[in-house]
Amino acid sequence: MSARRLRWWSWIHKWSSLICTIFALLLCLTGLPLIFHEELGPNPTLEQVADPRARASVDAMIAQALAERPGEIVPYLFYDREKPIVKIPTATSMTSAPDTFFYKVFDIRTGKALTTGQPNEGFIYVMLRLHADLFAGIKGTLFLGGMGLLLVVAIVSGVVLYGPFARRLGFGEVRRQHSSRLRWLDLHNLLGIITLAWFGIVSLTGVINTLAAPIELMWQSNQLMEMAVQSQAREHGDRRASVDLVLAKVRAAVPGMTVTTLAFPGSPFSTPSHYAAFLTGNTPLTSRILKPAIIDAASGEVVAVRDMPWYATALFVSQPLHFGDYGGLPLKIIWAAFDIVTIVILISGLYLWLARWRAGGAIPAGTRTAPAELVR
Known about the structure:
single chain, about 375 residues, alpha+beta, eight-stranded antiparallel beta sheet, 8 strands, disordered C terminus, Putative iron-regulated membrane protein, transmembrane helix, transmembrane, membrane, PepSY-ass_TM
């Protein structure tokens, strides 16, 4: 590679890294506890029951939740993927922001209310909001997406620069006899190459996750409307089929899948005349891919079932991969270890830049073939 091209890549790597590193460090620090969100978040205690397959009336659970919140309504049901519980949020309107929901949690086998903290408060919730949108809503999410793209640029440019650097040293060699800056440079580059594949995956899936809101809007304005058109829902005033009937009809229409979310008529993920159920499969991969079903609100009949479009599927697959949710606790521990190593890489990258800046930009002898450091 020519010296001119090397300088060009060095400039790209330097500025893309400097602009995004602080935010990348924030994402790594907040992402570390989020890897274990299931273990650290609200975790209700479940009692032993004689028949684990028993199902209590969901309508009765909804009535109990509403009795405690007079004047509010239920926009959704959220079923846990791993435990026999259902979260029933209440809100002042169907379009209320999720962070204003009040959740009541029930054991679906017995119908008993469970004592647990609210999922929209506490340490894990604060970490999630900082990681997802910096408490700035969609603007914060898209901003972090832009930082993620810069991070990808930093990774690519760092790999390009590592080639000339690696030709002068053996793989994994750390020049301990030289200055501390050179030792940190070698360690920084080594850790960067070791975590390259992992960090590339996490960065790309993170960028995809920031597009969740636009993807949801696309789905609502396209496929949801197309599915609803398949049914000429008859006017029945305020008549609504019971939720127990709706769930039974959905499970019969889509056997072998599990309902994870039920959106009530009038919510952003349904229509005024339909319930919308979202189901998943039973394998590690299909458990993360949603299949929507539209149900006539008055009769409870399932009127349309479709696979999600490719762009929504890409989002659903990327979300658990981003946090290492595919392989249980062992994979989470691996993800956490890589995250900690990446934090070291980011901090060392800042140290190397500050050390060079304090030295007036001078390059120590023996490093002129490596004009920039590999960051993450």
